[in-house]
Structure formats: C-alpha cells, structure tokens
Design goal:
Blueprint lengths: L1 E4 L7 H14 L3 E4 L12 H13 L3 E3 L7 E5 L7 E6 L6 H13 L5 E7 L9 H14 L4 E7 L8 E7 L10 E2 L6 E10 L6 H15 L4 E8 L6 E10 L4 E7 L6 H16 L9 H4 L1 H6 L1 E7 L5 H14 L2 E5 L2 E7 L6
Parallel strand pairs: 1-2, 5-6, 9-14, 10-11
Antiparallel strand pairs: 2-4, 3-4, 6-8, 7-8, 10-12, 12-13, 14-16, 15-16
Helix pairs in contact: 1-2, 1-3, 1-9, 2-3, 5-6
C-alpha cells in the first residue's frame, strides 16, 4: 500500500487527487493521511470527495473514510480503469476542471474510450480554468500522444456552480511520449477568450479584452480575441484567458475569473502581466502547466524537459509524488526540469 502524508509541500487537495489518479493507473492501494491539514478547512471538501468516488467507480474499487471533512482515506482500486460513459455532479461550485484532471490519467490507460459528463464550477480562483485546460494543457498532451477532447457546455461560477463539461479520452495504444520544450522561440502568437455570463449590458467581456489588448499593444504585441456573451449560466460571472503559441511549439497561458468587486479592466491587466512575466523568464511552460504536466511526464517513456518560470510548492509536491508512487527520477538545474518517465503501459 502506498502511504502519502497529505500535509507535505503544498499540503493542498492536489496531493490527494494526483495520488488517487496514480493509484487508479497502477492498481496499487492508497492511504492518504493529514489531508489538507494546513488549509483553513482541513480534510475532504465535496470536490475532493467526488474525485475519490469517481476513481473508485472507474476501478470498481473500495473507499474508506469517504466523507466530507475526513482527514484520512484508504482507496483500494479493484481493477484497471474501465471505459464507457460516466456522469458526476460535484453539487457545489467546486472545481470541475480538477475533477477532470484527476480522471484523465486513468482514462488514458482504460480498457476503452471514456466519456465524462461533469458538473460544478468551471471558472474560479485557485483552480485551472476550463479554457486553460482546453486551449493550453490538452494540446500539449496531444503532442505526448493523448487524444483528449474537452467541450464547455455551460459555464459555472462561484457560488452557484452549475457548469457543465464533456470530456472524451481515448485509451493510449503505445503509452505517452516524452515532451521536450527547452527553447521558447522568438515569435509569439497571442490568442484570447473573453467570456461573460448575464453581463452584456455592462460590456464585461468587451472591457476585459480591451484592457488586455491595450497593454499588449503597449508592449508591441497583438492578439486575436474570441468574445463570448453567455446567457445559460446559473448566475452572473466572467473569465478571461490569454494564451500564446511560439515558433518552437511552446504553449503558455494565463487566466483569471471574475468575482464581485473585481473590475473587468483589472482582470485584463492581471492576465496580460502574468503571461508576459512567465514569457520574460524564458519559461517554456506557464506557472500552471509547470506542475500539471509532471504527472504525465512521469508516466511517459523517455526524458521530458522544460523550463519553469519558478519552482513552486506545487512543482515540488508533484515531483515528490511521482518519485514516491512511480519511482520517476527528476533533475532540476536552475529552472530547467528533467523528468525520466517510467514508460508506463496498461497490462492487457
């Protein structure tokens, strides 16, 4: 049984979700304790519990300690992940994208194609947005051999949630390939998505994009914008994503969700400055991708290399996890990260 101290490094729910995802892949029983011990509300929140329940369902496994607030769980996968159609509703505005992220690794090694219908929050602080996953993470996983499609059917925001994602993951035939991104390149092509729900009269989507575009132009850049006015969400809300593709096939992005009191113009400025800060550090992955890609690099065959914008707690957490659970070795020289993947393959 793999035993994980959930208070290590970042001490966040990411440790729990990544551990559960890898337990699904390997079939190894998992014990996690001190779950989110250093967070204001320690223990399992509804979104973490839903991720565990989904992993349990996909593997016909057993879960002990599966209740909101629990600080210790034992998860026993019963079999390798199964494909088919699956539906889960977090029931709150908890991050649906983090649930999706938990499901992608096991689905890549499932016995057939997985289609997930997921409901909850799609755009909020402290979680990857659906647009960032769709436009930045998934294209990089495609370069590693992953066939994954994500559709945003309905936006969802804090506090009501109610967002709806459809995720389709095809099983790998030959495992994941390593990814090498060590040269940022010199040509940057910017694109953006500006989304607002029930805020057309206030011109929120237009104002966010205009503010971002103004700063970009001052820095000598231009972007192509997709402006979305939505009326399907359960409440008012907004989100802005700016991403860039370079001439060396690097993808980096930055985003922020709206919330009461956060001005549209402030969102636009924050997103542009965050992305330019990562680019000007010579990074080949943005601050979110830098830790998200680690689990896939560890499962891949060969050495993955990329340049981090910074070494964060989440980077350290994920490197510690993949070494402990998979035995994947890594080397960090300055901000150049090398991960030697284990070349994991699903048993017939």
């Amino acid at each position: 049984m793999i035993s994980i101290d959930g208070s290590k490094h970042s001490g966040s729910g990411t440790i729990l979700r990544y551990s559960a995802a890898l337990a699904c892949v390997t079939g190894e029983p998992l014990h996690v304790y001190n779950i989110r011990e250093r967070r204001p509300k320690p223990g399992l929140r509804p979104q973490h519990l839903k991720a565990l329940q989904a992993c349990c369902h996909m593997t016909s496994g057993k879960l002990e300690g599966g209740e909101t607030g629990s600080r210790e769980i034992c998860f026993h996968p019963g079999r390798l992940p199964r494909g088919g159609n699956h539906h889960w509703d977090i029931g709150t505005a908890g991050s649906t994208t983090m649930l999706a992220f938990t499901l992608i690794p096991p689905a890549l090694f499932a016995d057939s194609t997985c289609t997930f219908s997921l409901q909850g929050g799609l755009f909020q602080d402290f979680a990857p947005s659906a647009h960032h996953m769709q436009k930045v993470l998934l294209p990089l996983l495609h370069a590693m051999g992953g066939e994954i499609q994500l559709d945003v059917l309905k936006p969802g925001y804090v506090p009501q949630g109610g967002g709806h994602l459809r995720l389709r993951v095809s099983p790998l035939q030959e495992g994941l390939r390593a990814l090498r991104r060590v040269d940022q390149g010199k040509e940057w092509r910017f694109q953006g998505i500006s989304l607002a729900s029930h805020l057309q009269a206030e011109r929120v989507s237009e104002r966010m994009a205009t503010a971002a575009d103004r700063i970009l132009r001052e820095e000598g850049f231009e972007a192509r914008w997709n402006i979305h006015e939505d009326s399907s969400a359960a409440q008012k809300g907004a989100a802005l994503l700016l991403y860039v593709q370079t001439d060396t096939e690097c993808l980096l992005g930055a985003d922020q969700a709206g919330k009461p009191g956060r001005q549209s113009e402030k969102i636009g400025r924050f997103v542009v400055r965050s992305l330019l800060e990562d680019l000007r550090s010579s990074a080949t992955m943005d601050r979110h991708l830098a830790d998200q890609i680690i689990i896939f690099a560890a499962l891949a065959k060969g050495r993955t290399q990329y340049i981090l914008p910074a070494v964060t707690d989440h980077v350290q957490s994920n490197l510690w996890l993949v070494k402990k659970i998979l035995g994947a070795e890594f080397h960090l020289e300055g901000n150049l990260l090398s991960i030697d993947g284990v070349g994991f393959m699903r048993n017939p």
